[in-house]
């Protein structure tokens, strides 16, 4: 299992969280396409597969954590 190295910031403002999630969703979409393109080209560039997969995993993990923070923050209102 891949482990994340980035720490999701603790944001106290719902609008800031939504902005961060939106920005990361855009980046995650690009990473997903990059991973897909890499997989289609296998075995070419197989050496980069784990790095790209880890980066993609980390972004989606960070989005998930921010969504949890947002949900908790919105419940507290």
Please describe what this structure looks like.
The chain has 77 residues and is an all-alpha fold. The protein has one domain: Helix Hairpins. The chain has two helices and no strands. The termini are far apart.
Shape label: elongated
Beta-strand residue fraction: under 5%
Helical residues, percent:
over 70%
Radius of gyration in whole Å, from Cα? 15 Å
What is the top-level CATH class?
Answer: Mainly Alpha
Largest sheet report: none
Q: What is the tally of beta strands? A: 0
Query: What fold name goes in the CATH topology slot?
Result: Helix Hairpins
Uncertain stretches of 5 or more adjacent residues? 1-7
Count of alpha and pi helical runs: 2
Number of domains: 1
CATH architecture: Orthogonal Bundle
The end-to-end distance, rounded to whole angstroms, is 36 Å
What is the element string, with H for helices and E for strands? HH
Derived structural class: mainly alpha
CATH homologous superfamily descriptor? Helix hairpin bin
Question: What are the key terms here?
Answer:
single chain; 77 residues; mainly alpha; Helix Hairpins; 2 helices
Topology record:
Elements (H helix, E strand, L loop, with lengths): L13 H27 L8 H27 L2
Helix pairs in contact: 1-2
